[in-house]
Amino acid sequence: MSISVEFTAERFEIAGGGFTISRGTRTHAQVVTVSIADGNCTGRGECVPYPRYGESLESVQAQIAEITPRLKESLSRQALQGAMPAGAARNAVDCALWDLEAKQTGKTAAEIAGVGVLKPVTTAFTISVGTPEVMAEKTRAAAHRPLLKIKLAGPGDDERIAAVRQAAPQSTLIIDANEAWDESCFETNMKACEAAGVALIEQPLPSKNDGFLSGFECNVAICADESLHPGKSLDGLREKYDAVNIKLDKAGGLTEGLKLVSAARAQDFKIMVGCMLGTSLAMAPAVLIAQQADYVDLDGPLLLSEDRTPGLRFEESILYPPQPELWG
Q1: Active-site residues: which are they?
Q2: Which domain CATH number covers 51?
Q3: Which end of the chain is more exposed for a tag (fewer CB within 10 A), N or C?
Q4: pLDDT for 203-222, tens place per residue?
């Protein structure tokens, strides 16, 4: 039976007029969706190109087009790992193959992966960068949520952190600086995190300058995000970081993501599962990683004006496992 492969770029509007991090503001989530069909069964996957690593909608689609002839010849998910580099394109293809295998076998992706029955998890809800006043206002509206992720931008983050904590005194806070800090503000901002009882901070320094973290001690767990580069191992990170953020778009799919979880546990890292700004189709495979994570950040669909139908089920911050109609 012949295999067909289709892929397309899609745009989804972000709620509230946009989403801001230290690198800029976006008004739409831009994703690439892959469908691989074999007879009556179709598997789907979604990825979000990451400009930080030189990816674009065009480059990701070009990579998928290049691998398509081999997919039509029944390229296996295992062989895919060596046939494509880690990154967004491989993630979409890998997750589509997981979904296809689940539908062909009548088993869930979780059963195939051996992770057991999927359970609901609590996800973070993200507050984007703004003035302390604007961030406090947005935080007050979300203060009933147990876990908030706060985007930061560098100088002045100490005021943002204090404002957010005052607006949500009961929520657990995780902070994401997206490499925006430097020597001029690092110490001040870290003290603000400690004073606010922040649980974890992602990537405070640029990955090329994170050697400063070696031997640094504080009461806040420091998490590697951009320092965990696509296709690279965890080697050398443990002396600088307490945790790693596993994102399927960087890992190159669920297959590699599951291996990273095992490797991280072996090195005694705390595990965060994160996401780019995408739809429920991108989040669904990451729910398998979330079962073993200390921190879950899969709120992408909550930040969109409109999600896919069907999408993931959220009850406030509780994220439920995907239904087969969506993925897996």
Answers
A1: 151, 247
A2: 3.30.390.10
A3: N
A4: 999 999 999 899 888 999 99
